[in-house]
Structures are given as C-alpha cells and as structure tokens.
Amino acid sequence: MKLKLKIWRQKNAQDKGKMVDYDIEGVSGDMSFLEMLDVLNNQLIGKDEDPVAFDHDCREGICGSCSLFINGEAHGPDRLITTCQLHMRKFKDGDTVYIEPFRAGAFPVIKDLVVDRSALDRIQQAGGYVSVNTSGNTQDANAIPVPKSDADKAFDAATCIGCGACVASCKNASAMLFVAAKVSQFALLPQGKIEAKRRVLNMVEQMDKEGFGSCTNTGACEAECPKGISLENIARMNREYLSASFTANE
Hints:
Elements: E1 3-9, E2 18-24, H1 33-46, E3 69-70, E4 73-74, E5 96-100, E6 109-111, E7 114-115, H2 118-127, H3 148-158, H4 165-169, H5 176-187, H6 196-209, H7 220-224, H8 232-247
Parallel strand pairs: 1-5
Antiparallel strand pairs: 1-2, 3-4, 3-5, 6-7
C-alpha cells in the first residue's frame, strides 16, 4: 500500500508543534501500526532526518505505552486493541492517516507523539495498592474465600493497563475510568477492604490535583478502552467515594 501520513511533530515541550506530511510505500497489511512507523523512521534516518518519536515497549497489548490518536480515535480504527495490535489491513491503499499524541492537559507532550503520562502513576501511588504485613504472619490468599462473581469483576477491572485512552477519548479529559478500575479491583476483594476508604479518597484527590476533568457520562472512555473496562466501575467508585466521605471523620 501507499499511504499519506500526517504526523504531529514537536521538538520538545516548549515547541509549538505542527502536522507534517509523509508519503510511505510498500506497506503490508500484515504489518502492525508500529512496524509501519519503524519503516518510516528507517527511511527518515536514511535521509539524515530526525525520526518520529513514539512510545513503545512490549508490543503485545500489555504495557499501554504505545498510545496514539489515529484518525481521531484512541489506538485507531479497531476495538479492544492497543496501537501495537492495530494492523495495517485496517487501512486501504491511498488512505490519508492522521497520527497525533494523546491530547490532555494532564498529558503534556514531551516530543512528537510521546506524552508524559506519569500523572496516572501518581494516582496509582496515592492508593492503588494493598499494604501487606510480611512479618511471617501473612495468610495464604487462597485461604480467604471470594465469591466468583466478585473475583470476576475484580479481575475485569484489573485488566486496565493505564494507557490513557479513556482520558484521550473524553472531551473533558477525565481519568475517571482509570481511577475507577484501580479502585474497583481492590474494593471487590477482602484484601482491599482494610484500606478502602483511605484508598478512594486519596486517589480521587490526586486525580483532581493532576488536572483531569470531570466525567462527561458519554461513555467514550468505555468505547475506546482497549481492555473493555466497564462504566460500572465508575458507579462503584462513586459509591465508594460517597461512603468514605461520610465516614472519613469518624
């Protein structure tokens, strides 16, 4: 295939940035989207031009670092996949493809298609964990019975990879689905009950500090999430937060 790429180029965080056109040939439908960008960068390096900077790591849909906005959609024109899992067969010969970084005030651009998503890490650090006493008195996890329905919901929430597609897809750049998934995976399990109130209060407070917007209730986050995280988790987080707020001073 021959494609015309319109890619956001930005030298650094202070640079204004702009869309730059590139023509690429010999693109196979079996290539992943990132492999296509690798081919483009090889061509640019061969011409002594600066390659396009983009994030990637595992290329297996697990790490979430490959986040790109492609033709106006987070991770591109497919569902339940990350950018590295998007194949070029989703495009046609002669297509024009727009490639941009995730846009959000809390995701400042570092260079080209690379954004700083460490705000999500700081939310996780605020409470997205379970403190465990490792003094030798720990219980075996399998000794604590958990209803299968709760375990299934917790595992579904835990599949969140923190890619930020929910933020990029929301017109308010809300991180509610991300935070809700991290809260839910512990709120549903007995191991997470001890710190439940402090967890949800701290994580929501940190989310607000990072400058994410409020939930729009449009469902764009769930539609674009590569792991299909359900909006039900936002409802659960709201309940957890309300309950914790009432009892915070007790």
